[in-house]
Amino acid sequence: MKKLRVGICGWGNVATGLFNTIENNNKFIKSNGNLEIEIVVIGARRDNPKCDPGKIKIERDIFDVIDHDIDVLVELIGGVEVARELILKAIKNKKHIITANKAVLFHHGDEIFKEARSNDIKVLFESSVCAGTPIIKLLTEELSANKVTKIAGMLNGTSNFILSNMEEGADFKPTLELAQKEGYAEPDPTFDIEGMDAAHKIGILSSLAYGTPLPPDDFYIEGISKVEKIDFKYAKDMGFTIKHLAVSKLNNENIELRAHPVLIKEDSYLANLKSVRNGIEIETDLLGTLHIAGSGAGQESTASGVISDLVHLANSNNNTKEINLSSKKKLIDFLSLSFQYYFYIEAEDIPGVMASITSMFAEKKIGIESIVQKEDLKDNMVPIVLITDLFLEKEHDDLLKNILNLDSVFKVRSIRIEID
Ligand SMILES: NC(=O)c1ccc[n+]([C@@H]2O[C@H](COP(=O)([O-])OP(=O)(O)OC[C@H]3O[C@@H](n4cnc5c(N)ncnc54)[C@H](OP(=O)(O)O)[C@@H]3O)[C@@H](O)[C@H]2O)c1
Q: Are 153 and 289 in contact (CB under 8 A)?
């Protein structure tokens, strides 16, 4: 049986979950993974009342963990700059790295992997995307023979929880508060609801599949905070629901990278993944469309991914595929992409209002697939819902502004439609 001597840095949610899982599931790790894990040292700047590490050596300075006789350093402190410094120092000291930290990989992945390669060290990161749901090894190993043409997924559990509840009739703000109460959303939820968390994860997947840089060049990121409950009703009338989708897609041998809300067909696989679940759809040449879904957060799910990395490290040779630096592809300018759009427009119920709105689209030669005036609101206002034909993203902001500038229009918002 293989044995690994491990140092853990950080003593929070995930680290204590890892500690407990290694104790509780030791039998499976030994029999299924052929691995004995010895936790030699923990870097914890303070005790954690929820977990007693017993006789394991504690270092108050996480950097001192590197000086111990360990094979692998498990970085579970989170954040960017200190984590980067810790990882690079550990690599230079010939310690393998396992991290669950998507932020440090998103911002410094290329630097970290370069340093690892030149020191003949492995950096494994299964838990950094969708916690332990095994998307990283799926992409890097199981799909090795495939040309991956698209990766699209709901990668943020908080956003999916909020949107699923809104689909059932809840409002955004109380649902966000519920997500915080249930522990799904951070006290400061900005990163989740403004799309950054999902963007970090799709950035990492895109780098694995297509060699896009880490950090990636600027790409389009929009969160869910502008979606309203009524949008679900109108989307449903047309056979859609609303999800936050992160996409990396091969487009004429270059890469489309984006993370934003979309209308998707309500009978699609992703549309039916509710609550905090994460789900990813991968299109490949050999296997066709593949789906993977699971828990995207939590102590045990994240521990599962970290332990799978430990098993992998112990049982594989040195040829592990990491971030794909050999076949770099360029990101496509988001403004050059085309989308169909859903528009919600609130306007005064006066003669000619429909004509003035549709003329804004005609001016830009944008076709309208359907347009419906919905039931009256108060104060002589009517909601108008329309679906456009495909049009170039670079026209969008201007179009929105022109519509809002009409005297009879009081509100306008739009959501892209994910067609395939
Ligand atoms: N929670 C999840 O479900 C989940 C899922 C997937 C991935 N992850 C990733 O796993 C990592 C850890 O998350 P977590 O939920 O365990 O976070 P957490 O509960 O906040 O724990 C972080 C731990 O790191 C310590 N720490 C932070 N900065 C430090 C520093 N500069 N020096 C020394 N110690 C430091 C903290 O110490 P103090 O307590 O003293 O601040 C705490 O013990 C993050 O990268 C996160 O993105 C988490």
A: no
